[in-house]
Design brief:
Length: about 550
């Protein structure tokens, strides 16, 4: 290995905050993670401090549901953690294309799959998830940080993040936060080396999470669709957990591309670390070892399941003919791929277009002789050197142009309604409790979400223009509410001896001074960004959305 492959080990300055993968994990979960992983060095304190702020939001938004549902989990799943649900699990090591397949199958409304707003706060439930869906918007990009694949609160997510944010039952901390503790945390990857208590916790949380995402009436009879790369090493355990009612789709990809892409994944998520990361060669060697053992374990456990419940497909075939490959999966698993499902999948593919990713040049480490042998064996095992099936092109569907002026017209009405509701709530609270003088500045965050979503829907699609207008109207709501809120709370200069000009001046001064505090400015910024992101996004691309 060249010395140039290794990053500098000296202090590289302050680690800046990011929208962290475990941003919404409760504070008590973070405390356990910190204790287990040995703390946080000073240069990472700013990043960790920001995590604690977002963690506090996640804690407050979901604490009531955690308390209530902990009793439900103990009653339903702690003694015998099994759940009798029809489940399909997409397996395949990281960067094998499983997200693409999950998105395609999510187009079928007979499936229910967890969404990122649920997975990033696995401890939540209906109310908490609804709140956090709004909270997440300003912090999530429209594509994943490692590639150009669609991403956001409503997009299909990975249940492993839910179990990690809920109970630390995942290899994620050792993978993307404390890589020096890789050996400790990787036990959760294949559920090997865990104590019986730890394994039972994973089982009960997994069963409870599936129970939660199927509680809504429309989801109770749907087939559950799950996707998590670590499930590739958990086939036998998942079969036991779901009492033999689970079917698996194993996606395999050319191993050299998988390994290189995983090295890039670690590099792209380096901003989530709470310690200095290892050199690239260490990362590559860890990936190769885990990848090989994971695929071997999956093949062995898959053979014991039977071909009627375990189907394997190649990523190269999925790329060449997505609809034909998905149709083949349905046929093998005994599912009906009718014209309605095909139309939905075809529409999704037409909207997203061809997947293209610009890869920057980074060090990928040295390929060892052992890695070459592992790749050759895997290529032979899965017949990855055979030609892919014939390519079938999908006609691209242009997204409808946003009707910005229609969106603005709707946005004005929504902004007026938000202002009226804001003033009405303040008046009601002050009338009931005269000693209370609420400003309700945090309400601007909710207003921003409502305005942005309403304008996007009225415009028929999102656009930069709709986003900017939504953001501007959100700020306008705060400005319009400031003066009447001041009058309701204090009604300054209203007695004898004061002129109308005095009354206007003093109430306006109080109202607008309240908007200058740091907390108010933060909430106004969050509301404006939330409105912009909702108004800008093309939500119609979300599969199954």
């Amino acid at each position: 290995m060249s010395i140039n492959d290794r990053p500098s080990t000296k202090n590289r300055g302050i680690a800046w905050p990011v929208a962290h993968v475990l941003a919404l994990a409760p504070i008590d979960v973070w405390v356990r993670l910190i204790v287990r992983s040995g703390g946080v060095r000073p240069r990472y304190w700013l990043r960790f401090g920001f995590i604690l702020v977002t963690s506090f939001v996640g804690t407050i938004a979901t604490v009531h549901e955690r308390v209530v549902l902990s009793a439900v989990r103990r009653r339903l799943f702690e003694a015998e953690p099994q759940i009798n649900r029809r489940v399909i699990v997409i397996v395949g090591y990281y960067r094998s294309g499983t997200t693409h397949l999950q998105n395609l199958m999510s187009c079928d409304d007979r499936f229910v799959t967890p969404r990122w707003s649920q997975c990033l706060a696995g401890q939540g439930f209906v109310l908490g998830w609804s709140i956090l869906r709004f909270v997440l918007v300003p912090f999530l990009g429209q594509t994943r940080p490692q590639d150009a694949v669609g991403f956001g609160p409503d997009w299909p997510g990975e249940d492993d993040f839910a179990l990690c944010s809920w109970g630390g039952c995942s290899s994620i901390p050792g993978r993307f936060i404390w890589p020096s503790r890789w050996d400790d945390w990787k036990r959760w990857h294949g559920l090997e080396g865990l104590s019986e208590k730890e394994l039972d916790r994973w089982r009960s949380l997994m069963a409870m999470f599936v129970w939660k995402i199927t509680r809504r009436k429309k989801n109770r009879d749907r087939v559950v669709l799950l996707k998590t790369p670590s499930h590739t090493a958990r086939v036998a355990e998942l079969d036991r957990l779901f009492n033999g009612h689970v079917k698996f789709v194993h996606l395999v990809r050319e191993p050299g591309a998988v390994i290189d892409s995983n090295v890039r994944l670690h590099e792209s998520l380096a901003g989530h670390l709470l310690e200095d990361g290892p050199d690239v060669q260490t990362i590559r060697e860890r990936i190769v070892e885990e990848y090989a053992s994971t695929e071997t374990k999956c093949s062995r456990e898959g053979e014991a399941i039977g071909s009627d419940r375990f189907v394997r497909v190649r990523y190269q075939d999925l790329q060449s003919d997505a609809i034909g490959t998905v149709r083949g999966i349905y046929k093998t698993l005994g599912l009906g791929f009718d014209e309605r499902v095909e139309a939905s999948v075809r529409s999704y593919l037409g909207r997203v277009g061809a997947y293209e990713s610009t890869k920057k040049t980074i060090k990928l480490g040295q390929v060892s002789a052992d890695e070459e042998a592992i790749k050759a064996e895997m290529v032979a095992r899965y017949k990855l050197d055979d030609e892919p099936i014939a390519r079938v092109e999908i006609e691209h569907i242009e997204a409808p142009a946003a009707k910005v002026w229609r969106g603005i017209g709707s946005g004005v009405l929504i902004a007026l309604a938000c202002t009226t509701a804001w003033i009405g709530i303040v008046w009601t609270l002050h009338s009931l409790w005269p000693s209370v003088h609420p400003r309700l500045i945090p309400a601007v965050w909710v207003c921003g979400a409502v305005i942005g979503m309403g304008m996007r829907k009225a415009a028929g699609n999102g656009s930069v223009g709709v986003g900017i207008a939504a953001s501007s109207l959100t700020v306008l709501v705060v400005l319009m509410a400031a003066f009447p809120v001041s009058v309701i709370n204090y009604n300054f200069a209203s007695g004898a001896g004061y002129t109308a000009q005095d009354w206007v001046y003093h109430n306006a001064k109080y109202g607008f001074e309240g908007l200058r505090s740091v907390a108010s400015l933060v909430f106004i910024a969050l509301g404006a960004v939330t409105a912009y992101r909702h108004g800008r996004s093309g939500a119609a691309n979300v599969p199954g959305g």
